[in-house]
Amino acid sequence: MNGGLPGFHNAPASRAVVVAAALFSVPFGFRGRFLDLGLSYQNVYERLSIWRLITSLFAFSSTPELIFGAALLYYFRVFERQIGSNKYAVFIVFSTMVSVLLQILALGYLKDPSINPLTSGPYGLIFASYVPFFFDIPVSMRFRIFGLSLSDKSFVYLAGLQLLCSSGRCSVVPGVSGILAGLLYRLNTFGIRRLKFPEFVTSLFSRVSWPYSSNPYQGLPTTENDANISSHQVHQTQDAHAATQDPTESSIAALAATQDPTESSIAALVSMGFDRSSAVQALVMTNYDVNLASNILLEAQALQQ
User: Fold this and answer.
1) CB of 60 within 8 A of CB of 171?
2) Is 149 helix (H, G, I), strand (E, B) or coil?
3) With contact defined as beta carbons under 8 Å apart, do 287 and 279 qualify?
4) Are 264 and 47 a contacting pair, CB within 8 Å?
């Protein structure tokens, strides 16, 4: 699975969620089968164990669930880069709260002992992220394995299916609740997509989670108009690099710059809505990797909004 640029650059909220999931899962989640950390009818409606809401949001109950869940959270950081950390933090809160509410309603309606307790962990956020993944992330590569037609998105779906079925019906309810929460967000229920947290909230995410170095791909233009915004920084970098080159190296660099990537790669990015010049630049910077180039263009587009 490739979620764009490596690491958590421009994704402090995603980083904070992954760190919280790991920290809660190590001391609590791996003992979750015995501690009964997930939501259940008795804990919610009879004992009113509100503290279980917190543990059920972050602590995975087994090592495989933590591995698949953390991998998906890491992949879906691309959405934070697209819409910005302020809006993505709203998406996290909304999808989590709505998912928990739907789980509580499902427990009260079904009263089924076989789903008590529900699987703990950030299932709401993970499966809510599959909604924009389905609608907004284009397929950039198709292939066949043993006669089956697959795409580069298939492995992300398979990882989600594994997580959804990891605990049977106990994990299906949180997963479906997360999907419904993602659909409500996409439908802009209560105008939620217009909301965003203040800047100090996202800066807080950056302080409480691990730092990450700056990324050389930041500010890549995605349209001809966007190119004017970041062209000054690009020219400054190019001038500084050219000053350290001798004439021979400059000639080689100029010759390399004139080499165009394959037309099929350019056409694939242009078909996604990017202009040709930005597509060429992204492909050159990523050694003609269409998947990585498309993610860079999406992230740069979000930065310019």
Assistant:
1) no
2) strand
3) no
4) no
How does pLDDT run along the chain (305 residues), one tens digit per residue?
Answer: 555 556 787 788 999 999 988 888 877 655 544 456 677 777 777 776 666 677 778 888 888 899 999 999 999 998 988 888 899 999 999 999 999 999 989 988 888 777 778 888 899 999 999 999 999 888 878 889 888 899 989 999 999 999 999 888 889 999 999 999 999 999 999 899 998 888 777 677 666 555 444 444 444 444 443 433 344 443 444 454 444 444 444 443 443 444 444 677 787 777 777 778 888 888 877 777 777 777 777 777 665 55
Residue 37: closest CA among 5, 59, 20:
59
In contact, 21 and 121? CB cutoff 8 Å: yes
Q: Smallest Cα–Cα separation from 56: which of 174, 168, 209?
A: 174
Q: Both tokens of residue 148? A: 């089956």
**Amino acid type, 42:** Q
* C-alpha dist (Å) from residue 11 to 23, 69, 109, 200, 202: 18, 17, 37, 15, 9
Contact between 265 and 283 under an 8 Å Cβ cutoff? The reply is yes
If you write DSSP's letter for every residue of 57-70 in order, what string do you get? HH--SSHHHHHHHH
Q: Provide the greatest CA pair distance for the chain.
A: 79
Other Cβ atoms closer than 10 A to 257:
11
Domains of the chain, first to last: 12-209 (1.20.1540.10), 261-303 (1.10.8)
Here the tokens at position 289 are: 């990797």
Nearest in space to 68 (alpha carbons), one of 145, 28, 123, 129: 123
Nearest 5°: the CA angle 125, 128, 129 is 85
